Amino acid sequence: MFGNPQSSQTSRSPQAAQPAQPTQLVQPAQPAHYTGTAAPRPILAATDLVMDYTANMPRAQAGHAPVGTIYPGHTLALNHVNFQLAEGETVAVMGPSGSGKSTLLHALAGIIRPTSGTVTFRGTDVTHMSDADRTKLRRSAFGFVFQSGQLLPELPAIENIALPMMLSGADYRQATDVAVLWLERLGLRALAAQRPGEMSGGQMQRIAIARALAMRPAVVFADEPTGALDQTTGREVMSMLIDVARGNGAAVVVVTHDPNVAAFCSRTVTMQDGVLQ
Amino acid sequence: MSTFALWRLFHRPGTRGNAGHTSVLAIIAFAAATAIFLTVLGGVHGFIWRASADHTIGCLFEPAQCAPGTYALWAKRLADANDPAMYASMYVMLAAFACILLVVPFVALAGSAARLAASRRDQRLAALRLAGATQSQVVKLTALEAAGQALIGALIGIVGYLALMPLIMLLNFQNQHFTFEQLWVGPWALIVVLLAVTILALVSALLTLRRVAITPLGVTSRQAQPLPAGSRALLFVGVLLVAIAGLSNLQLFAGLGTAVIYGIIFAFIALPFALVNLIGAWTVSTRAKSRARRPKDAATMIAMRRILDNPKRAWRNVSGIALAVFIAGITSVCGMFGDSVAGADANGIDPNMLMLRDIGTGGLLTLVFAAVLAAVSSGVMQAGSVYDQVNEYRMLVLEGTDTATLNKARFIEVLTPLNVVVVVAGACSMLLMFPLMAQDMTHPITLLSFFGGVALCYALVAVGALASNRVAASLNLMDYRADD
User: Fold this and answer.
1) How many angstroms away from the CA of B293 is the closest CA of chain A?
2) Where is the segment annotated Disordered (chain A) (predicted)?
3) Residue A94 pairs with which residues in a beta bridge?
């Protein structure tokens, strides 16, 4: 049920039958791009996405216009964006500050509901799901790695990794057993009992990656995952993220400013003023 | 820039955010504490009014200070064995005792409100330090804010005291209802309470800030703290056994006079209660540690780890309930006597029985006040922790955690220490009362009164938890603009 790293590899990816060792996690000279020539089946697709943060603001609520009305004359956070993500594909979303990268990631992950347009995950329209269903979807099918602060400060590393599994109904023993395997696989066994406040930024991000992948998600969303790290540590963390995600057959969407981070992905797209270029 | 100018900068309309919410919570807490304290003080004033020949405090202690002719009449009443006036001074003492008892939850509530005022501002204060504000300016700013909230809360509390007065007038003590004149503490007492609450908040805020060093980089990252030592439990058990032994052998003190014996009984009962605070954090952390070993679900795991992160905070959240349960245990026996005279003709009641009934009623009233103070304190702390954890909540919700799990975690975080408190304080009070009133302990009315009091505590804390859930529901965890 959960992402036992070994069982997931044997079932999904013969090449990763052996757990990836930390020493193997190096930056690829030529990133292993997604090379499918035939049109890949999209796991996640966004069609004509528009996000206008002012649409639900007081002007609309005051009755001057229906909620969701898009007002002309200002920049949309997402301006009629179309995006597709194939199974196992890794995509970097780049762009300057305020270009709409994180908004796109949040819309794709079902965190926010776009003003208009649709997001489908394996053919199911995410935008029209109830909040509860979107919450379940995020928990079961998606993994998240943020820049920082996603680990609960009171929980030791092992329980931080076990948490999503327990939220999905696993008992403590089962969840922590899987968490230990992840820690061992990522060479972080020594951190099992440590709390986030006792770890370095790089160690915290590695734990966050283990947590994101422990549920064997179909897609991992990473928002500036190396933004708070130095270049060397950032490279190691990114390498680990891509490697482990590939080992588990998960697709990855990474939002970043950093071309070095984007280089780890098989495809890079650029956002500018809410438009995907 | 002066501290006042800084304060004004943060108090322009629309600049408050979550700080505004916490201010409202702190003000509510101060208002509740002040209203209840003034109500109890009004009760003390009422009993003094009744116990004094000319209704003044001076006359109560020194007959020579009484208005001419009043003491002679009063002395005649005191001589009448059927007049409840003979116990009027005892009522003053008991009311003052109740007032002192309530100081504990009152200070706890005022302290938690001041901490709320101070500690939720870590981020903003750190930013201020980064911008060049001195440590002294930051401390003054926060203390000023806490004091301001306390002042506003105390003013609202005075209105609450006046609003509660008609309800208190319905109560029957010494076979008569209170009047406005009896319950009105006077303008000077109001001013003193107003100033005392403000100063208390100021001191609490300064003490809190002394522990939280606000550097330009914010508060230091959280690391595991050493848990309270078990030696405290040994000390507590030792004192409890000595108290039980003392209460079981009161005949040893027979030659010391009635007043001394009452004093000894009071000391033997009060001392273990005072020490409950000593072992509170230890018992809570021990319980949390045992549950954290194999939590049954994610909510329990989060809750236990949060308790273990700061057992003192967990204990503080419910420490007021310890007093309420303790009072429930002590007064439940008196309630039984009260019930036995309830049906009697008012004119024919023996003053001794009347006093026992009134002790029962007073104890129940103290219990309700203590429970309300504790519930408000616990609710304020829970609501404060919602704001405190808003970033972590947001991350968890983004990752697919449903808010029900988070609400449940917060509730368990309060419920676990609450259960510990009820067991420890309840058992402690029962053990202490056992040598004195063993035969009445198992009486259905005693048990009903005790468990009724405990149920009231649970109900009020549950209301506090529900209020904090409302606060959590009002947070915008999802629909906020992403940092693109």
Assistant:
1) 9
2) 1-38
3) A270
